[in-house]
Write a structure and sequence with these properties.
This protein has 2 helices and 4 strands. It is an alpha+beta fold. It has a 4-stranded antiparallel beta sheet with strand order 1-2-3-4. The longest helix has 6 residues.
Amino acid sequence: MVHCTGVEFRPRKKRIPIATDGGGNPFFLDMSTKPPKVWACLHDEDFALLEVACSFGDFIDNLKFDPDMI
């Protein structure tokens, strides 16, 4: 996990937001890596950045259907 403040998280040229979770935490692609990695910014964890997947394809492949969240 990489920690940053909310000010440091502000979108940058190399970050593309792609989704949010139920708590409003944004997921984004880090275009500075090849392939682009998927990260989440965790608001409740002092804006910690968590690497979620090594690529967008891995992110999609690991999505799970949760009938309780519909």
